[in-house]
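A further point concerns the way the authors explain their paired sequence and structure data. Showing the layout once, in full, would remove most of the difficulty. For illustration, here is how one protein appears when written out as sequence plus structure tokens:
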Amino acid sequence: MRNTAPKDAAELEALETREWLESLDYVLQSGGPARVGRLLRELGDHARRKGVKQPFTANTLYVNTIPATEEPPFPGSREIERRIKSLVRWNALAMVVKANKAEDGIGGHISTYASAATLYEVGFNHFFKGKGDNHDGDIIFFQGHAAPGIYARAFVEGRIPAEKLENFRRELKAGGGLSSYPHPWLMPEFWEFPTVSMGLGPIMSIYQARFMRYLEDRGLKKRSDSKVWAFLGDGETDEPEALGAITLASREKLDNLIFVINCNLQRLDGPVRGNGQIIQELEAVFRGAGWNVIKVLWGSEWDALLEKDKDGLLVKRMGEVVDGEYQKYAVESGAYVREHFWGKYPQLAEMVSHLSDEQLKKLTLGGHDPTKVHAAYAAAVKTTGQPTVILARTIKGYGIGEAGEGKNITHQQKKLNEDELRAFRTRFGIPIADAEVAKAPFYRPPDNSPEVTYMLERRKQLGGFVPRRITTSEPLKVDTLHDCFTEFEKGTEGRKASTTMVFVRMLAKLLKDKELGELVVPIVPDEARTFGMEALFRQVGIYSHAGQLYEPVDMDTLLYYKEAKEGQILEEGITEAGSMSSFIAAGTAYATHGINTIPFFIYYSMFGMQRIGDLVWAAGDSRTRGFLLGGTAGRTTLAGEGLQHQDGHSHLFSMAVPNLISYDPAFAYEIAVIIEEGIRRMYVKGDSVFYYITVMNENYEHPPMPQGVRDGILKGMYRFKASEKKDAKARTQLLGSGAILPEVIKAARILEDQYSVAADIWSVTSYQELYREGHAAERWNRLHPDQTPRVPYVRQCFEGIDQPIIAASDYVKALPDAIDRWLPRPLVSLGTDGFGRSENRASLRDFFEVDSRFIVLATLDELARAGKLDVAVVTKAIKDLNINAEKPNPATA
């Protein structure tokens, strides 16, 4: 009788394993996948209770998430779509090649779109919804470096003429051209969002998806199945902004958000993770954050091989190979792949023995297989309760062959020689003759061709063309707008208040306005109480899609922390980048959703322009509208906080953003005039501008609005008070801004009372506006020498005045110096150059030499140098004013 007992421990273990697997198969057959899942969780919990410690992993096997047996039928014509994709590939490549032949070094990118063509084409033909009569349209963040492919498709669709393609990256040529990357500022009817500052597209898309929910939950927008698609590269995920907000998406259950990550395993210089696997790394990150992860790694030709992989050896081998090695396979021959991938295990070599080397080489990756990509997209759009990320494996430069396919140099590839162009033409079946191929001509089939007919019909069925930026919002009615601001023209009537308090009061009134109230979107990064905004918690509530599932600890107080599904405040937590992304979403809603939402984003001014300047620049490019409020502004006005918090340069940074209008107001009526005008400019006139206003936390009395100063406030400067002293020994002009204007007013009194110097006081609300207007006048004069010269506003203000001009602000001296050229004599600037300190205001202003004493001293010194006063007066003033002449220079201390 044959002994069937196990011979050793290994055989016994194999037998036990087989029995467990057979049992699991039985449960799967009888109870289904859900029961298997519950059973596995219970077994895991039981093992942990018994002391079994299993290493944590958020990874699944290195295979497609969706098995071939679960793929839906492909709904279109694979052959026609392949031809369309080939046409787009050719024209994208031709565009870059022609541009660099015409202008060496003009740049452009071939390889990104080459790797992502299938990812985009499946979307264009089956998923991306346009803005039509019956649909709001999808919001799509296109990967910036893939722009040539998006232009090429628009050309084949008939939306962009060949002449524009000829002028790719030559926007200033006659007839116009195409911008290098997605730039709404440059192509406002085509692109919606700028994405090529890598990392910004992902974070902006997350907050766009959340803002869509915000509009729906507040009843400003009807609910729809619109999606936000974000296309990005695997290398881009190293940018902190790319992954920094992904938990918000899962926390808010944003199932309207789909990330598509083109995992070609390469960044600009080399592999993303040469010694690891970026796809597995990203899977773990996203699954850990609560996203639905769909991996699209292997094309359809692999399905039969995986079906034969009964012992899992092929799957094991797939998971062993690092990305640097996978990249090597992409550039080597089929024989090399046979030896180094399949040859490691004899069983695998035998598995593919029936395939030739050429067949092995042609085994496609998932991201290049329309069936696999379609299955992933179909699953993504049906997912509920969580966002989805699709990790699509591709080859960078796919299709360009020896010119750079899969090579480290491919990102920089701009040119192809005639042989390379011919090979590309032949590979993708483009009907261009050998004699013409070297010219890389554009090719578009006739309007009645199967390709053009098919793609236009698909876009019609999906609601229209994408990308396309259209603005359907109507100008706001502002009949009651001025009523919100009239009380501030009276000043504070003897009471002390900060400009922050004034702004919050204005915001509260705007929120109650019957015409505008529901459109106002307050945004704050966890500093509402710092800015005195807690009263708004109760008034309009903090937005939360889930409502409030708990009783807040301060429920018994008047101003408790109130979250609500219809809440109006976006309380973003400690994230200026996320808050700015919400600001962009709200500030572009007039175009994206046809809704004129008015965002007011208030934050620590130091953590704005300096910290998130790239997003501020993107806001400008996006034609964002709204108000940025730099709170606790001014290097000497924010007491105690010190070097990292005290802002003395945000206005210098903001000057660089062309459509950002910046103000540093001192009084309530100035803020009222600026905000009222801003709303009219942006939401009535439709100007593509946005505003930056600094507000401070120092309390002082605000005077009533003088007559006739409105225009001066908006232009950037007006005479606040002319000296009434008739018997003065000398006269001067004092310029003050923001929180330092009260110091200037005090200095004027000292000069008149103690030194018999008459001082006119000017409030400078915006050096930026004065700078821009002055240069605009000079430019016009230069280009129109035969016309009556325009006079810069600054020069008009000081016409006929030959007196010392002293400017003091809480910002660096470069700010007032910006208007020096239009003054009748050199400007003396007092500012806050240097690092801040933890101190009180008086000490800080003494340290930075911007208080009333230093303003007085600067004036007396200028008068002495002009021969109007004896130097001894200045020397005595230094002593009388208790100024330390040997103190360290604050600019370098």
